[in-house]
Hints:
globular; five-stranded mixed beta sheet; alpha/beta; disordered C terminus
Amino acid sequence: MNYIGMDCHISNVDFAVVNEAGRLVKASSVTTSVNNFIEFVKKIPPPRTIYMEESTLAAWVLEICIRYGEKLVITDPKQNRWISSSGQKGDSIDALKLAQLARGGYIKEIHHPVGQRRRFRELMEAYHDTVRNEVRIKCKIKAKFRQNGIQCTGDTVYVKDHRQEWKDKLPQEATLLLILEGLWLQLEQLEQTEKEILKAAKAQAKCYPEINHFEAIPGIGFINAATISAILETPYRFANKRKVWMYAGLGLMKRSSGGKSYSERLSADYNRLLKYTLKQAAEAAIRAEDNLFRRKYLDMTLLHGIAPNLAKLTIARNMLATMWAMWKKGEKYNPEIREKINSQTGLGLALS
Protein backbone atom coordinates (compact mmCIF):
# COMPACT_ATOMS: atom_id res chain seq x y z
CA MET A 1 0.00 0.00 0.00
CA ASN A 2 1.29 3.46 -0.92
CA TYR A 3 0.17 6.42 1.20
CA ILE A 4 0.27 9.68 -0.76
CA GLY A 5 0.37 12.69 1.54
CA MET A 6 -0.51 15.95 -0.17
CA ASP A 7 -0.26 19.62 0.84
CA CYS A 8 -2.34 21.53 -1.69
CA HIS A 9 -2.30 25.25 -2.44
CA ILE A 10 -3.63 27.35 -5.30
CA SER A 11 -0.12 27.73 -6.77
CA ASN A 12 1.52 24.38 -6.06
CA VAL A 13 0.95 20.88 -4.69
CA ASP A 14 3.54 19.04 -2.58
CA PHE A 15 3.46 15.23 -2.54
CA ALA A 16 5.15 12.70 -0.27
CA VAL A 17 4.70 8.96 -0.83
CA VAL A 18 5.26 6.52 2.04
CA ASN A 19 5.15 2.73 1.69
CA GLU A 20 3.89 0.17 4.20
CA ALA A 21 7.30 0.07 5.88
CA GLY A 22 7.11 3.80 6.57
CA ARG A 23 9.87 4.72 4.13
CA LEU A 24 9.65 7.79 1.92
CA VAL A 25 9.72 6.43 -1.63
CA LYS A 26 8.98 9.58 -3.60
CA ALA A 27 8.48 13.32 -3.07
CA SER A 28 7.68 16.08 -5.52
CA SER A 29 6.21 19.55 -5.90
CA VAL A 30 4.11 20.38 -8.97
CA THR A 31 2.17 23.38 -10.21
CA THR A 32 -1.51 23.14 -9.30
CA SER A 33 -3.46 21.78 -12.26
CA VAL A 34 -5.55 18.71 -13.06
CA ASN A 35 -2.99 17.30 -15.49
CA ASN A 36 -0.01 17.70 -13.13
CA PHE A 37 -1.94 16.22 -10.23
CA ILE A 38 -3.12 13.13 -12.13
CA GLU A 39 0.22 12.65 -13.87
CA PHE A 40 2.04 12.36 -10.52
CA VAL A 41 -0.58 10.12 -8.89
CA LYS A 42 -0.72 7.67 -11.81
CA LYS A 43 3.04 7.09 -11.52
CA ILE A 44 2.61 5.67 -8.00
CA PRO A 45 2.03 1.88 -8.12
CA PRO A 46 -1.35 0.69 -6.82
CA PRO A 47 -2.80 0.09 -4.32
CA ARG A 48 -2.59 3.75 -3.37
CA THR A 49 -4.62 6.29 -1.42
CA ILE A 50 -4.29 10.06 -1.44
CA TYR A 51 -4.57 12.06 1.78
CA MET A 52 -5.03 15.80 2.18
CA GLU A 53 -6.22 18.13 4.92
CA GLU A 54 -9.52 19.98 4.71
CA SER A 55 -9.16 23.22 2.75
CA THR A 56 -10.92 25.39 0.18
CA LEU A 57 -9.49 23.16 -2.56
CA ALA A 58 -10.66 19.88 -1.00
CA ALA A 59 -13.96 19.63 -2.91
CA TRP A 60 -12.21 20.40 -6.20
CA VAL A 61 -9.55 17.72 -5.63
CA LEU A 62 -12.22 15.21 -4.57
CA GLU A 63 -14.16 15.62 -7.80
CA ILE A 64 -10.95 15.21 -9.83
CA CYS A 65 -10.17 11.97 -7.97
CA ILE A 66 -13.68 10.64 -8.56
CA ARG A 67 -13.43 11.49 -12.26
CA TYR A 68 -10.14 9.59 -12.63
CA GLY A 69 -10.98 6.72 -10.29
CA GLU A 70 -8.58 7.62 -7.49
CA LYS A 71 -9.28 7.30 -3.78
CA LEU A 72 -8.97 10.51 -1.76
CA VAL A 73 -9.33 10.85 2.00
CA ILE A 74 -9.90 14.39 3.29
CA THR A 75 -8.65 14.63 6.85
CA ASP A 76 -9.50 16.87 9.79
CA PRO A 77 -6.54 19.23 10.47
CA LYS A 78 -7.67 19.61 14.08
CA GLN A 79 -6.82 15.95 14.61
CA ASN A 80 -3.43 16.21 12.90
CA ARG A 81 -1.73 18.06 15.74
CA TRP A 82 1.65 16.47 15.05
CA ILE A 83 1.76 18.49 11.82
CA SER A 84 0.73 21.89 13.20
CA SER A 85 2.56 21.71 16.54
CA SER A 86 5.96 20.77 15.13
CA GLY A 87 8.72 23.36 15.24
CA GLN A 88 9.94 22.34 11.78
CA LYS A 89 7.18 23.10 9.29
CA GLY A 90 6.85 23.41 5.52
CA ASP A 91 4.68 22.15 2.67
CA SER A 92 6.89 19.15 1.87
CA ILE A 93 7.27 18.30 5.58
CA ASP A 94 3.50 18.57 6.11
CA ALA A 95 2.84 16.22 3.19
CA LEU A 96 5.26 13.64 4.59
CA LYS A 97 3.82 13.81 8.09
CA LEU A 98 0.28 13.43 6.74
CA ALA A 99 1.33 10.29 4.85
CA GLN A 100 2.91 8.91 8.04
CA LEU A 101 -0.21 9.63 10.06
CA ALA A 102 -2.32 7.88 7.41
CA ARG A 103 -0.05 4.85 7.51
CA GLY A 104 -0.48 4.66 11.28
CA GLY A 105 -4.25 5.11 11.10
CA TYR A 106 -4.18 8.33 13.11
CA ILE A 107 -6.45 10.47 10.97
CA LYS A 108 -10.10 11.44 10.98
CA GLU A 109 -11.84 11.54 7.61
CA ILE A 110 -14.15 14.44 6.72
CA HIS A 111 -17.16 13.78 4.53
CA HIS A 112 -17.64 15.92 1.41
CA PRO A 113 -20.70 15.98 -0.86
CA VAL A 114 -20.06 15.67 -4.58
CA GLY A 115 -21.92 16.48 -7.78
CA GLN A 116 -25.43 17.90 -7.48
CA ARG A 117 -25.48 17.38 -3.73
CA ARG A 118 -22.46 19.64 -3.39
CA ARG A 119 -24.16 22.39 -5.40
CA PHE A 120 -27.40 22.05 -3.44
CA ARG A 121 -25.52 22.46 -0.19
CA GLU A 122 -23.71 25.52 -1.56
CA LEU A 123 -27.06 26.92 -2.68
CA MET A 124 -28.60 26.64 0.80
CA GLU A 125 -25.48 28.12 2.40
CA ALA A 126 -25.68 31.01 -0.07
CA TYR A 127 -29.33 31.55 0.89
CA HIS A 128 -28.48 31.88 4.58
CA ASP A 129 -25.52 34.16 3.80
CA THR A 130 -27.82 36.40 1.76
CA VAL A 131 -30.41 36.59 4.54
CA ARG A 132 -27.71 37.48 7.08
CA ASN A 133 -26.47 40.25 4.78
CA GLU A 134 -30.02 41.56 4.42
CA VAL A 135 -30.35 41.78 8.19
CA ARG A 136 -27.00 43.56 8.40
CA ILE A 137 -27.99 46.17 5.79
CA LYS A 138 -31.39 46.72 7.42
CA CYS A 139 -29.69 47.38 10.74
CA LYS A 140 -27.40 49.92 9.07
CA ILE A 141 -30.35 51.70 7.44
CA LYS A 142 -32.17 52.14 10.74
CA ALA A 143 -28.93 53.12 12.46
CA LYS A 144 -28.52 56.04 10.05
CA PHE A 145 -31.84 57.48 11.15
CA ARG A 146 -31.15 56.93 14.86
CA GLN A 147 -27.75 58.60 14.47
CA ASN A 148 -29.64 61.70 13.38
CA GLY A 149 -32.14 61.62 16.24
CA ILE A 150 -35.01 60.12 14.22
CA GLN A 151 -37.06 57.32 15.70
CA CYS A 152 -37.18 54.47 13.22
CA THR A 153 -39.58 51.59 13.85
CA GLY A 154 -41.50 49.22 11.64
CA ASP A 155 -40.62 48.01 8.15
CA THR A 156 -41.74 50.93 5.97
CA VAL A 157 -38.20 52.35 5.97
CA TYR A 158 -37.18 49.44 3.73
CA VAL A 159 -40.09 49.80 1.27
CA LYS A 160 -39.34 51.67 -1.93
CA ASP A 161 -42.67 53.56 -1.98
CA HIS A 162 -41.99 55.07 1.47
CA ARG A 163 -38.37 56.08 0.99
CA GLN A 164 -39.01 59.68 0.05
CA GLU A 165 -40.99 60.40 3.22
CA TRP A 166 -38.19 58.88 5.28
CA LYS A 167 -35.56 60.89 3.38
CA ASP A 168 -37.48 64.10 4.09
CA LYS A 169 -37.03 63.51 7.83
CA LEU A 170 -33.23 63.56 7.52
CA PRO A 171 -30.93 66.58 7.28
CA GLN A 172 -30.69 67.30 3.55
CA GLU A 173 -26.96 66.67 3.32
CA ALA A 174 -25.60 65.15 0.11
CA THR A 175 -23.17 62.77 1.85
CA LEU A 176 -25.79 61.35 4.21
CA LEU A 177 -28.34 60.86 1.44
CA LEU A 178 -25.72 59.23 -0.80
CA ILE A 179 -24.86 56.69 1.91
CA LEU A 180 -28.52 55.93 2.53
CA GLU A 181 -29.28 55.49 -1.17
CA GLY A 182 -26.36 53.08 -1.40
CA LEU A 183 -27.72 51.01 1.50
CA TRP A 184 -31.19 50.89 -0.05
CA LEU A 185 -29.67 49.77 -3.36
CA GLN A 186 -27.72 46.99 -1.63
CA LEU A 187 -30.91 45.87 0.10
CA GLU A 188 -32.78 45.71 -3.22
CA GLN A 189 -30.03 43.60 -4.77
CA LEU A 190 -29.94 41.23 -1.80
CA GLU A 191 -33.72 40.80 -1.79
CA GLN A 192 -33.65 39.99 -5.50
CA THR A 193 -30.79 37.52 -4.98
CA GLU A 194 -32.70 35.86 -2.15
CA LYS A 195 -35.74 35.35 -4.40
CA GLU A 196 -33.62 33.84 -7.17
CA ILE A 197 -31.76 31.50 -4.81
CA LEU A 198 -35.01 30.39 -3.18
CA LYS A 199 -36.54 29.68 -6.59
CA ALA A 200 -33.50 27.60 -7.58
CA ALA A 201 -33.57 25.77 -4.24
CA LYS A 202 -37.23 24.81 -4.65
CA ALA A 203 -36.52 23.52 -8.14
CA GLN A 204 -33.60 21.38 -6.96
CA ALA A 205 -35.46 20.19 -3.86
CA LYS A 206 -37.79 18.15 -6.09
CA CYS A 207 -34.90 15.68 -6.47
CA TYR A 208 -34.84 14.99 -2.73
CA PRO A 209 -38.12 13.45 -1.41
CA GLU A 210 -37.01 13.62 2.23
CA ILE A 211 -37.54 17.40 2.15
CA ASN A 212 -41.30 16.97 1.65
CA HIS A 213 -41.39 14.45 4.49
CA PHE A 214 -39.53 16.83 6.81
CA GLU A 215 -41.97 19.66 6.11
CA ALA A 216 -44.77 17.62 7.70
CA ILE A 217 -43.02 17.87 11.08
CA PRO A 218 -44.20 20.77 13.30
CA GLY A 219 -41.74 23.68 13.19
CA ILE A 220 -40.12 22.53 9.95
CA GLY A 221 -40.76 24.72 6.91
CA PHE A 222 -39.17 24.47 3.48
CA ILE A 223 -36.02 26.43 4.39
CA ASN A 224 -35.33 24.35 7.50
CA ALA A 225 -36.09 21.08 5.70
CA ALA A 226 -33.92 21.94 2.69
CA THR A 227 -31.05 23.16 4.89
CA ILE A 228 -31.03 20.01 7.02
CA SER A 229 -31.19 17.79 3.93
CA ALA A 230 -28.40 19.74 2.21
CA ILE A 231 -26.04 19.62 5.19
CA LEU A 232 -26.60 16.00 6.22
CA GLU A 233 -26.80 14.77 2.59
CA THR A 234 -27.49 11.17 3.59
CA PRO A 235 -28.55 9.48 6.85
CA TYR A 236 -26.04 6.68 6.26
CA ARG A 237 -23.14 8.96 7.17
CA PHE A 238 -23.98 8.38 10.82
CA ALA A 239 -23.99 5.08 12.69
CA ASN A 240 -26.64 6.21 15.19
CA LYS A 241 -28.56 9.28 16.33
CA ARG A 242 -25.90 10.25 18.87
CA LYS A 243 -23.41 10.67 16.05
CA VAL A 244 -25.87 13.01 14.32
CA TRP A 245 -26.31 14.98 17.55
CA MET A 246 -22.55 15.43 17.86
CA TYR A 247 -22.32 16.73 14.28
CA ALA A 248 -25.15 19.18 15.02
CA GLY A 249 -23.61 20.43 18.27
CA LEU A 250 -26.37 18.85 20.36
CA GLY A 251 -24.45 15.85 21.71
CA LEU A 252 -22.47 15.59 24.92
CA MET A 253 -18.71 15.10 25.04
CA LYS A 254 -17.73 13.12 28.11
CA ARG A 255 -14.26 12.86 29.63
CA SER A 256 -13.42 10.26 32.21
CA SER A 257 -10.42 8.68 33.89
CA GLY A 258 -10.10 5.95 36.48
CA GLY A 259 -13.77 5.09 36.08
CA LYS A 260 -14.84 8.62 37.05
CA SER A 261 -16.36 11.22 34.75
CA TYR A 262 -14.83 14.66 35.26
CA SER A 263 -16.26 16.60 32.32
CA GLU A 264 -19.51 16.60 30.38
CA ARG A 265 -20.35 19.37 27.94
CA LEU A 266 -21.86 20.00 24.52
CA SER A 267 -19.68 19.12 21.58
CA ALA A 268 -17.49 22.03 20.50
CA ASP A 269 -16.70 20.82 16.98
CA TYR A 270 -19.94 20.91 14.97
CA ASN A 271 -21.74 22.37 11.97
CA ARG A 272 -22.86 25.87 13.00
CA LEU A 273 -25.56 26.28 10.36
CA LEU A 274 -27.13 22.93 11.22
CA LYS A 275 -27.31 23.76 14.92
CA TYR A 276 -28.80 27.19 14.19
CA THR A 277 -31.43 25.65 11.91
CA LEU A 278 -32.43 23.02 14.46
CA LYS A 279 -32.71 25.57 17.26
CA GLN A 280 -34.96 27.72 15.05
CA ALA A 281 -37.06 24.67 14.21
CA ALA A 282 -37.38 23.68 17.88
CA GLU A 283 -38.56 27.17 18.85
CA ALA A 284 -41.07 27.16 15.98
CA ALA A 285 -42.43 23.77 17.07
CA ILE A 286 -42.81 24.97 20.65
CA ARG A 287 -44.76 28.05 19.49
CA ALA A 288 -46.95 26.08 17.05
CA GLU A 289 -50.38 24.64 17.77
CA ASP A 290 -50.70 21.52 19.89
CA ASN A 291 -48.15 18.94 18.78
CA LEU A 292 -45.91 16.23 20.22
CA PHE A 293 -42.89 18.51 20.67
CA ARG A 294 -44.84 21.36 22.28
CA ARG A 295 -46.47 18.97 24.76
CA LYS A 296 -43.10 17.49 25.65
CA TYR A 297 -41.60 20.96 26.16
CA LEU A 298 -44.46 22.05 28.45
CA ASP A 299 -44.23 18.79 30.38
CA MET A 300 -40.49 19.28 30.95
CA THR A 301 -40.67 22.94 31.96
CA LEU A 302 -43.97 23.13 33.88
CA LEU A 303 -44.21 19.71 35.49
CA HIS A 304 -40.58 18.76 35.96
CA GLY A 305 -39.03 22.20 36.43
CA ILE A 306 -36.40 21.76 33.73
CA ALA A 307 -34.81 25.02 32.54
CA PRO A 308 -36.32 26.26 29.24
CA ASN A 309 -32.96 26.30 27.45
CA LEU A 310 -32.31 22.65 28.37
CA ALA A 311 -35.84 21.69 27.37
CA LYS A 312 -35.35 23.36 23.96
CA LEU A 313 -32.09 21.46 23.54
CA THR A 314 -33.93 18.19 24.16
CA ILE A 315 -36.65 19.11 21.67
CA ALA A 316 -34.03 19.94 19.04
CA ARG A 317 -32.41 16.53 19.64
CA ASN A 318 -35.78 14.80 19.34
CA MET A 319 -36.58 16.57 16.08
CA LEU A 320 -33.22 15.70 14.56
CA ALA A 321 -33.50 12.07 15.67
CA THR A 322 -37.00 11.90 14.19
CA MET A 323 -35.84 13.27 10.84
CA TRP A 324 -32.79 11.02 10.75
CA ALA A 325 -34.89 7.89 11.43
CA MET A 326 -37.58 8.90 8.91
CA TRP A 327 -34.95 9.51 6.26
CA LYS A 328 -33.09 6.27 6.91
CA LYS A 329 -36.25 4.17 6.84
CA GLY A 330 -37.91 6.09 4.00
CA GLU A 331 -40.99 6.77 6.14
CA LYS A 332 -43.36 9.69 6.50
CA TYR A 333 -44.11 11.60 9.68
CA ASN A 334 -47.18 10.46 11.63
CA PRO A 335 -47.81 12.23 14.97
CA GLU A 336 -50.19 9.49 16.13
CA ILE A 337 -47.56 6.76 16.20
CA ARG A 338 -44.88 6.75 18.89
CA GLU A 339 -42.00 4.43 19.49
CA LYS A 340 -40.74 3.49 22.94
CA ILE A 341 -39.65 6.46 25.01
CA ASN A 342 -35.94 6.97 24.60
CA SER A 343 -34.07 6.91 27.86
CA GLN A 344 -31.77 9.70 26.73
CA THR A 345 -34.31 12.16 25.34
CA GLY A 346 -37.60 11.20 26.95
CA LEU A 347 -39.39 11.28 23.60
CA GLY A 348 -39.94 8.53 21.06
CA LEU A 349 -39.79 9.02 17.32
CA ALA A 350 -43.15 9.65 15.69
CA LEU A 351 -42.98 7.70 12.48
CA SER A 352 -45.10 5.76 10.04
